[in-house]
Amino acid sequence: MTAAKAQVETFRNAYVSGRVVVPTDPEAEWGKLTAVLEDDFNTPAVLAVLHEWREAGYVDLLDQGLAIFGLRFRRADEQRRVIQVPAAEARGAAELAFVVKVYGDASEGVRRLAEERYVARQAKDFHRADELRDHLLSQGWRVRDEPSGYILEPANP
Question: In this predicted structure, what is the pLDDT of residue 76?
């Protein structure tokens, strides 16, 4: 039981860390899990795949894999979308992808403002980025920057 509790805690910590990576081939990753499940429900191998996803930051895949076993670590009311956004055309630079995490039900207009703020920050136009941040806050949304992108969440959850 102690070992099982320790494994559950390592999975739970994947959600707390905030690190989210989108695999380049999610179907191939999911195929790893289905292959070991079809091998007489090989639980040790399943756990190995789930831990591999946890270490890689594949939180969305981990969430789906753990759900097979009835484990859910996210709050039921949380809506989360992870989006890879190309920003090259806005910056005139090489292709750049960033990760956006949206908690709650943000309108398309709010999401566009948050993306515009991110692009302004990347271009070091901090005055414009601050204006957009304040505008988002006046609409009830807070933006938190991360190394790989940003989080958009309700200001008063």
Answer: 38
Same domain (yes/no): 88, 149: yes
What residue numbers bound the domain in which 120 lies? 80-154
**46 shares a domain with 98:** no
Average pLDDT of the segment spanning 27-32: 92
Phi, psi of 58 (to 5 degrees): -80, 65
Phi then psi for residue 20, to 5 deg, are -130, 125
Which residue type, as a one-letter code, is found at position 114? A
Query: Is 133 among the domain residues?
Result: yes
Instruction: Answer whether 0.70 is exceeded by the pTM.
Output: no
Alpha-carbon span 52 to 32, nearest angstrom? 11
Burial class of residue 135, CB neighbours in 10 A (0-12, 13-18, 19+): middle
